[in-house]
Amino acid sequence: MNKDAVILVSGLPRSGTSMMMKMLEAGGLSVLTDNIRTADEDNPKGYYEFEAVKALESNKDWLKGASGKVVKIISQLLKQLPVEYKYKIVFMRRKMEEVLASQKQMLVRRGEPTDTIGDDKMAKIFQAHLLQVETWLAKQPNIEVLYIHYTEALENPLPVIDKINQFLGGKMDVKKMAAVVDKSLHRQRA
């Protein structure tokens, strides 16, 4: 199943990337994670992060062993991907109001300031970034992208899971993928 491509889950922070990682793992894919960032109140099922991804600009060695595995990568780092690899990206989309509310709640829980940039300005920054990234992705011959909306994956998971399964080769355990979808984690709604 796509042993020649690195499978990536991407999107803005707080867009459902951890949920998608859990779904793909349940479906039978091997995930690349180091469990350094552990589950907490903001992500009670875990973050599924791999610290080496954060240093992608200076260290790409970890990609040598990543073919056929799933790695979570924030959208801001996608342009750092080396062109010598093939990638299949499941890109998570979520209503901007929910992304911002979720980020704000996470900052509150951590005791960090929430008023450094207003929601309107942050929404414009994120929307400009998404447009830039999606335009760039469309031009990359070594990258295939499937866009998934977080709310659809929660509210009606089976059709979404079918799309994901087909995109990634059609051999995933769709029942197990559906079983890990947890609607109770959709706490910030717009």
Key features of this structure:
36% helix; alpha/beta; five-stranded parallel beta sheet; 5 strands; 190 residues; single chain; Rossmann fold; globular
What does it look like?
The chain is of the alpha/beta class and 190 residues long. It has a domain at 5-94 and 142-183: Rossmann fold, CATH 3.40.50.300. Helices cover 36% and strands 15% of the residues. It has six helices and five strands, in the order E-H-E-E-E-H-H-E-H-H-H. A five-stranded parallel β-sheet has the order 2-3-1-4-5, with helices on both faces. The chain is globular, with a radius of gyration of 16 Å.
Offer a concise description of the structure:
By secondary structure, the protein is of the alpha/beta class. It is built from six helices and five strands; from the N terminus they run E-H-E-E-E-H-H-E-H-H-H.
CATH class of one domain, please? Alpha Beta
Helix and strand succession? Answer: EHEEEHHEHHH
By CATH, the topology of one domain is Rossmann fold
Reported for the largest beta sheet, the result is: 5 strands, parallel
Chart the SSEs and their pairings:
Layout (H helix, E strand, L loop, with lengths): L4 E7 L5 H10 L3 E2 L37 E4 L13 E8 L2 H15 L8 H20 L4 E7 H6 L1 H11 L6 H6 L11
Parallel strand pairs: 1-3, 1-4, 2-3, 4-5
